[in-house]
Specification:
Blueprint: E1 2-3, H1 7-18, E2 27-32, H2 38-48, E3 53-58, H3 67-74, E4 81-83, E5 90-91, H4 95-105, E6 109-119, E7 125-129, H5 135-141, E8 154-156, H6 175-183, E9 188-200, H7 211-228, H8 235-247, H9 253-263, E10 266-267, H10 269-286, H11 292-297
Helix pairs in contact: 1-2, 6-7, 9-10
């Protein structure tokens, strides 16, 4: 579990791992240079559970998404399976048990994720996040979107090209997208059909920040994957890639996040309402005699 200034949500995240039905867990928490008191919370839990929790503190933040901190934690891990857990989410009690069982039954699978329930900053369920379940569908969708819910993944360590490192640090917040493209060469991917994690949207999620910049980075990653990672992009994915390149630069920043969330399978009443309202407002604005407002928003 990488942690950076997640003190507000850290306790339920930690508790959700301590309360897993699968108990053979080596729980490694890496504080990635937090300044908000997260380290104090981590140390308190380590004192309470000295045989279950390893606490590591990094003096200088490794990277914004916590992937560098994951690599640090992996150097201390002994387990055959590596589970990612973000410090602002909540794992359901049987998450680890079901993922371990799946990987034991499917030894050619390197990575398994799950579906997710969307919760708000108060922990209230407000929607769902859906991703394809079988390897073929996941592989095809990689050319369009990231079909894995990152904080839900579990990886079979023996299939990693380097058992002591997961993430390639090349694309900042998008490092997981690029890294998983690389891992497609080493085994199958799967997503369990059940929602085994509560994915928190609280207004400061890095995955939703700077959407145009993140979109451009994702396009560059797909091109890199085709050119250097032998990824076979489907005609459908190539069509959508061209379509995205034509449309996204024209969309005002304020519209990108709600539209992106709908496309990513994040379904919440508020997102649907917000998307419809913003689209209606956008098209109404563009019908005005002057184009000054439209130009400024662009």
């Amino acid at each position: 579990m990488p942690v950076h200034n997640a003190g507000r949500f850290l306790t339920p995240a930690i508790e959700s791992i301590l309360n897993q039905t699968y108990t053979r867990i080596e729980f490694i928490i890496v504080d990635d240079a937090s300044t908000d008191g997260s380290w104090n919370i981590i140390k308190e839990y380590q004192r309470k559970y000295p045989n279950r929790i390893k606490a590591i503190r990094v003096a200088k933040q490794t990277n914004a998404a916590g992937n560098g901190a994951m690599n640090v934690g992996l150097t201390r891990a002994r387990g055959a399976f590596i589970a990612r857990m973000d410090a602002d989410d909540i794992a359901r009690p049987k998450r680890i048990e079901k993922q371990v069982a799946y990987l034991l039954d499917h030894p050619d699978t390197i990575l398994v994720g799950t579906q997710a329930t969307i919760i708000d900053k108060h922990g209230t369920a407000i929607g769902t996040k859906a991703v394809p379940t079988d390897h073929e569908a996941i592989y095809r969708q990689y050319g369009i979107l990231h079909p894995i819910i990152h904080p839900s993944v579990m990886i079979l360590r023996s299939l990693l090209p380097n058992p002591n490192k997961i993430y390639t640090m090349k694309w900042s917040v998008n490092d997981d997208y690029y890294t998983f493209f690389k891992l497609l060469k080493y085994g199958k991917f799967a997503n369990l059909p059940e929602s085994l994690i509560k994915y928190r949207i609280h207004g400061q999620n890095l995955s939703l920040a700077k959407p145009k910049e993140r979109f451009l980075t994702s396009v560059l990653i797909r091109i890199d994957a085709v050119a250097h990672l032998n990824y076979r992009i489907s005609p459908e994915a190539f069509f959508f890639l061209i379509l995205q390149l034509l449309i996204v630069p024209l969309i005002p920043e304020r519209l990108i996040v709600p539209v992106y969330m709908l496309v990513r399978g994040i379904r919440t009443p508020s997102i649907v309402h917000e998307t419809v309202s913003k689209l209606r407002s956008f098209f109404t604005t563009t019908k005005q005699p002057t184009s000054l407002v439209y130009a400024r928003n662009l």
